[in-house]
Amino acid sequence: MFQQFIFYLFTAVLIASAIGVVTVRNPIYAALCLILAFFSSAAIWVLSGAEFLGIVLVLVYVGAVMVLFLFVIMMLDLNLDLLKEGFIRYLPIGLGAALIIIIEMSLVLHMPTFQIKQPLAVLPTNNTEALGEILYTDYAYPFEIAAVILVLAIVAAIVLTLRRRADVKLQNIPEQIQVRRNDRVRLIKMQAEK
Amino acid sequence: MEALTRFLNNFLPDDLVTFILILLKIALIVVPVILLAAYTTYAERKIIGFMQVRIGPNRVGPLGLLQPIADTCKLIFKEIVIPTHSNRFLFLSAPLLSMGPAFTAWAVIPFSEGMVLANINAGLLFLLALSSLGVYGIILAGWASNSKYAQLGAMRVGAQMISYEIAMGFALVGVLMAAGSLNMNDIVKAQSGSIFNWFIWPLFGLFLVYFISGIAETNRAPFDVAEGESEIVAGFHVEYSGMAMAIFFIAEYANMILIAVLTSILFLGGWLSPLQGLDVLTQLPGLGLFFGNGLHWLALKACIFLFLFLWFRATFPRYRYDQIMRLGWKVLIPVTLVWIFAEGIAIVIGWQPWLF
Predict the structure, then answer these.
(1) pLDDT surpasses 50 at B122
(2) To 5 degrees, how large is the angle CA A139–CA A143–CA A144?
(3) Using an 8 Å Cβ cutoff, are B101 and B131 in contact?
């Protein structure tokens, strides 16, 4: 009974905040609504026994991705009226994307390939361990591919933003540490003035 | 606890009794944490005072012991000034957002054998997730204040906390590899045996990384560029006054205490006694209670780290911002990666120095 109450509470918050993301005027509030949506879906996952996934959702999306998101939004000088202008114009595109997502999700949920054919004989008590074991044995190959794609993305992001500017004065710490006396000081013998 | 449960069961339904008991336990944790946070400010002023050959607060009460209470009274009665063109709702909720995670994390801390509010399987992950939430309060405070200094402070903290979280997470990975569990209680128990079974010995590098990034996560000196008095006045809370600012302070000190407690749990065996295994001492009548395992050892270890926090503040000059980033990304993260790799090899070949 209590669990059901909590489930409905978090679902209500999730739906309300998801609607808020696309309807509120202020982009900061939209980002905060998205954070709330992530948080409540994480709570629902924890409630259904997937504590590892729930906590990782909070850790990765709420703790890191959305912080950077907020960062960017705060740094931009946003013109709120301009942002609101295209709402009707972009509505068909948004609805189209939503439709595709709905079709994909219903495919995943109803296709026989994605159904659980044989439930586990022994239910794992600790789903972090269970997930780890499956990920590093049965699904090791897809997991490695995902890792490589992520590394590629990191390298690409760094390469795209990396530029050497000639006009900045930067400190080269290894060079500073390795400096020797002879590089900086020169002793000169001079005749004393008479 | 059981007597109380039976007493309440006489006239209340079961669900309500559980609810009341959980609330009681939460109060039992939160109230001491708030008091400790208040008295850490006192300790800080006294200790730094002694280090600088001053007396420190000594006017209110004997030895100045009532100073934190006087400060609290003063702050409660101060006006909370809300800057013009600031975002009122976010401005007022930001302190709460920074205090929430600082207190919630205490739910999974094992204080002694079985003395834990929520003994969950993924305790360590839970802590990591919560420590990453604290940054929101600070970022939103900076943005909602509509002030350049606050905004600059918030930006600095945001980047700093995200960077050091990675090193912190990797240090925790080392701990959970050694313990073989994410549960806080199991992590403490994995270190039982004697003082040489504590994780600080095989994981010394990770211990240093964890504590350093813990200091950076709590924005304490020498990593307190977020506040940087000489550059941006007080950073993200420059526009806050009265209780709103006090809540930021309580959150900061609660986080400090949390990091101190966590370091002692993860690396120094938490509530395990350092005299474990010396039966001569632990079997003594009376004194054996002190020499045996218990909450007091956790408190003692945490006090050492808290003292280190204050000592660092009195000793080290503030890092420059690019040097903070360099330390986090180019020194601490590689150290943890190499350490985890070596630890993995040690575990695979069965060479476990923590199994003396």
Answers:
(1) yes
(2) 120
(3) yes
Considering chain B, what is the average pLDDT of its residues? 84
The whole-angstrom distance between B129's CA and the closest CA on chain A is: 4
Task: Determine, for residues B165 and A64 on separate chains, whether the beta-carbon distance falls below 8 Å.
Answer: yes
The per-residue pLDDT for range B181-202, each reduced to its tens digit, is: 888 888 888 888 777 778 888 8
- Residue in chain A nearest B15 by alpha carbon: A2
- Contact residues on chain B for A55, CB-CB shorter than 8 A: 122, 125-126, 129
Inter-chain residue contact A68 with B162, CB threshold 8 Å: yes
Q: Does A56 touch chain B (CB under 8 A)?
A: yes
* Residue of A46, A75, A128 to mutate, interface with B, max B Cβ within 10 Å: A128
What's the CA gap between B159 and B165, in Å, rounded? Answer: 10
Mean pLDDT of the A183-187 span: 87
Q: Which residues pair with B115 in a beta bridge?
A: B112
CA A62-A65-A68 angle, to 5 degrees, is: 115
Asked whether the beta carbons of residue B143 and residue A74 sit closer than 8 angstroms, the reply is yes
Three-state SS at B72: helix
Report the amino acid identity of residue A107. L
| A-chain residues near B128 (CB < 8 A) | 59
Interface contact A126-B121, CB threshold 8 A: yes
Strands (E), chain B: none
Residue A50: partners with Cβ closer than 8 Å, 6 or more residues away: A127
Residue among B90, B125, B135 whose CB faces A52 most closely: B125
The pLDDT of residue B307? 92
A58 interfacial to chain B (CB closer than 8 Å): yes
pTM (two decimals): 0.84
Cα–Cα distance, B345 to B339 (Å, whole number):
10
Burial state string for A43-80 with b = 16 or more CB within 10 A and e = fewer than 16: bbbbbeebbbebbbbbbebbbbebbebbbeebeeeeee
Q: B interface toward A at CB cutoff 8 Å?
A: 15, 87, 90, 120-122, 125-126, 128-129, 132-133, 135-136, 139-140, 143, 151, 154-155, 158, 162, 165, 182, 322-323, 326
Quick: pLDDT tens for B261-302: 999 988 888 888 877 777 666 666 666 667 777 788 888 899
How far is it, in rounded angstroms, from Cα B213 to Cα B163?
Answer: 9
Domains and CATH numbers, chain A: 1-116 (1.20.120.1200), 118-166 (no CATH)
Chain B residue with minimum CA distance to A29: B90
Distance of CA A53 to the CA centre of its chain: 14
Contact B186, B120 (CB under 8 A): no
